[in-house]
Amino acid sequence: MKRGLAIMMTLLFAGLTAGLPAGAARAAGYEDYRQRQQDLAALAGVFGDLHHIRRQCEPRAEADVWRERMKTLIDLEAPLPDARQAMITAFNRAYGAARRRYPVCNRRARDYAAAQSERAEIIVARLVRPLHETLDRDEAALFTVSPETGAQPAPMEKPARQNP
User: Fold this and answer.
1) Where are the alpha helices (DSSP H) in the chain?
2) Which of 40, 59, 74, 89 is deepest in the core (most CB within 10 A)?
3) Cα(151)–Cα(63) distance, integer angstroms
């Protein structure tokens, strides 16, 4: 489960840095943008939960891992000030709630962390879906399909010759 989340986080961070146009959120429409901001805040909340619980349960291995992931997420996403504040607030609230609910590491805390990790995987999958769709579309454009030959690389156009 931890490995699955790590893979999804890698995909998320790759998606955030894949050179998508700066106005992609606006172009996708307000609803898509709003859903993305809600997902980012929800993911930040999961990070807050995990930051407390993993520090309690694995203090040597994961002391500040989730706080650092939160910082990386904010740096890569570069959200608008209101969205940034919503993410930070979600992280801090979740951290505080987990701290009150799970003051020590026990089976309940570990089970809750596992459930939150699964929730994070779902959120991350939703966040990277547009990247996958773009990559699939770009990959499809690289091939032509005909009944006789099957999938073949698309012919490359020769660049126009420039006259000096």
Assistant:
1) 2-16, 24-27, 30-57, 59-62, 65-77, 81-101, 107-141
2) 40
3) 49
pLDDT on residue 164: 52
Length of the chain: 164
pLDDT of 76-124, one tens digit each? 989 999 999 999 999 999 999 999 999 999 999 999 999 999 999 999 9
How many domains does the chain fold into?
1
Give me the domain span that covers residue 45: 2-128
Which one-letter DSSP state was computed for residue 151?
Answer: E
How many beta carbons lie within 10 A of that of residue 40, not counting itself?
A: 23
157: helix, strand or coil: coil
Residue 93 counted as domain residue: yes
Question: Residue 144 falls within a domain, yes or no?
Answer: no
Rounded to 5 degrees, what angle do the CA atoms 34, 37, 43 make? 140
Does a structural domain hold residue 54? yes
Residue 19 lies in a domain: yes
Is pTM, for the whole model, over 0.85? no
pLDDT digit string, tens, across residues 131-148: 777 776 666 666 555 556
